[in-house]
Amino acid sequence: MALPPLLLRLHLLLLLLGSRxxxxxxxxxxxxxxxxxxxxxxxxxxxxxxxxxSWDDGAPTPCAYxxxxxxxxxxxxxxxxxxxxxxxxxxxxxxxxxxxxxxPASLASLTALTDLVLYPGRVGGSIPADIGSGxxxxxxxxxxxxxxxxxxxxxxxxxxxxxxxxxxxxxxxGAVPSGLLLPSSPSLKVLILANNVxxxxxxPAQFSSSQLFHVDLSRNSIAGTLPPLPPTLRYFSVxxxxxxxxxxxxxxxxxxxxxxxxxxxxxxxxxxxxxxxxQVFALPSASSLLLSRNNFTGPLAVPAAPASTxxxxxxxxxxxxxxSGEVPEALAAAGSLYVxxxxxSGEVPDAVARSVFAGRMTTFYAQHNFLTGFPVPSRPLPDSAAxxxxxxxxxxxxxxxxxxxxxxxxxxEARPADQCRSGGxxx
Length: 427
Hints:
With 427 residues, this protein is an alpha/beta fold. The protein has seven helices and 27 strands. The protein has a 15-stranded mixed beta sheet that branches. The chain has a four-stranded mixed beta sheet with strand order 2-5-7-9.
C-alpha cells in the first residue's frame, strides 16, 4: 500500500509556491546545485514522460525546476543562500510512465531536505547507503513502485524527524533494519516495505514500544514469531511472509494495552498456528480481520459484543486453516465472513443465516467443512449476497446455497459420508 499520490501532490504544491518567491532574492547553495546536476545526469524520462523539460530549458535557477522547492539556509548568513528542502522526482500523474535510471550518491548531500519523493517508474540500482546520515532532517521518504535493489539502508533508522518511509513495490532484499520498528525511530509513524519479496529478518521483541501507526511488511520473507503489537497501531499487515508460532500475547500480555485503534489486520499466508486468541475478535476498531491460509486450529472463541454495540467487522476471513468447532453466532455481525476450507462442524447459527438473507452479510463462504445444517429463512436470497455451502455433511438446503460458490472452488456435491461419520478429514 503506497501513499495516495493526490495528497503528496497537494502538499508539495504548497511548498513549491513558497519556493518561487524565495528564489527571487537568493542563490542556491553550490553543493545542492551540484547534487541536482547529478540527479539530472542519473535519471531520465521514460517515453511519454516530460518531467525533466523544465530542467533542460535553461531555467534561471534550479529552484525553478519542476519538483524542486527551496528555502533559506538556516545554518548560513540570513538570506544569503537557498537550500533544497523538497525534491519530487516525477509528475505522479496516472498517465505518466515515470523515470528510469539510478539514484546518485550525492542525494545525501542535500542536507536541508525534508521531503524526498520518487514517483513510480523504472528507477533501479541501490538506495545510497548513507542517505540517512546526510539527510538528518527528513520527514518523508517515498521511493515506491520502482525497481530499486539492495538493502534498506541502516542509516534510515533513528532519524529524529522521519514520519513516513515508503519503499514498497521494489526489489529490495536483506534484513529490515530493526531500528525502524523500535522507539529509536521516535517520529516514525508510517512504514511501508510491502511487495519487495526479498526483505527478511524478524520483528523485534520491543516492537510494542514503538509509536508506529501504519506498518505494511506484506509479501516479503519476514520470519519469526509475532511479538506484542504497539498500542498505537491502526494498520498492520505481514501477509505472505514466513512467520510462525502462536499469537499468544501478541494482542495483550503482561498489562500491555491492546491496539484499540487497529482497523486493519492482515496475518494471512504465513505459518501461524494454535488457536486464534479471543482478543483478536475483541479489538474494538477492527473492520478487517484477515487470517486465512495459516495453520490455526481449535474452535473460534468470539467474545459477545457489549450491550448496545455492534462489532465493526466489514470482513472476517479465517479460511484455509484447520479450525474446528462450530460457527460462532457472534460472527453474524460481519459484513463478509469466510470460514471455508476448515474442519468446522454443526449447524450454522440462525443469526448468521438471517444476516445473509437480510442482506446485512453480503458474503458467507463455508464450503469444504463438516457442517450439518443451514436454517433457510422464508425469503429469497438477495441478489447482492454470495452464499456457498458446498462440500459439507448435508444436502444443500436450496439451489441458492451454491450460487455464490467460486468457479474454481472445487466439487459442489456433498462431502463423502465416511468422512462425515469420522468427523474429520482434510477440510
